[in-house]
Every structure is written in C-alpha cells, then in structure tokens.
Amino acid sequence: MREIFMQVKDMKCTGCEATIRKQLLKLDGIYDAHASFKTGKLYLNVTPEFQPLDALTSMAEVGYTLEADTEG
C-alpha cells in the first residue's frame, strides 16, 4: 500500500467530506480515504497499481477538483 495526499477544491463542509469519501471508496485500489474541508486536504491509502487519474475523474463526476499536494 501507498499513501497519496491531494488538495480538494470546492469542499465546504462535512457533507462534502462524506460525499468525497463515499465516492472514492467505490474505486478499485482505494483502501481508505479521508477528506478535511478545514484544510482542503485529501488522504488516500491505495494499492501500488492505483492510478490517481481515476480519483480525478471520479471527483469531477461529483463536482470537485483534485490537485497534487506538494506539502504532503
């Protein structure tokens, strides 16, 4: 497993956090997902084969934009 950290645009509340988590956990290769609207950060615990583009596409479907988190 590996960890990925990303920034989430347009996340405004705990409802957004729940929507993001639920949507991402549907994807193959994601073991865990946590989002924080206070920090705008997303943490993913994924398989080595997981492709971040899958998360980007999935989030776009529900109205959020992901960006690489350069701070980790």
Comma- or semicolon-separated keywords:
72 residues; alpha+beta; Alpha-Beta Plaits; four-stranded antiparallel sheet; 4 strands; 29% helix; globular
Task: Report on the architecture of this protein.
The structure is a single chain. The chain has 72 residues and is an alpha+beta fold. The protein has one domain (2-68): Alpha-Beta Plaits. 29% of the residues lie in helices and 35% in strands. It is built from 2 helices and 4 strands; from the N terminus they run βαββαβ. A 4-stranded antiparallel beta sheet has the order 2-3-1-4. A hairpin with a 4-residue loop joins β2 (30-36) and β3. It is globular, with a radius of gyration of 11 Å. The model has no long low-confidence stretch (mean pLDDT 93).
Low-confidence stretches: none
Tally of alpha and pi helices? 2
Named CATH topology: Alpha-Beta Plaits
What structural category characterises the helix and strand content? alpha+beta
- The CATH class name reads Alpha Beta
Which strand order does the major sheet show? 2-3-1-4
Q: Strand portion, in percent?
A: 25-35%
Separation, N- and C-terminal Cα atoms: 16 Å
Q: What is the number of domains?
A: 1
Element string (H = helix, E = strand) = EHEEHE
From the spread of the alpha carbons, the general shape counts as: globular
- How many beta-strand elements? 4
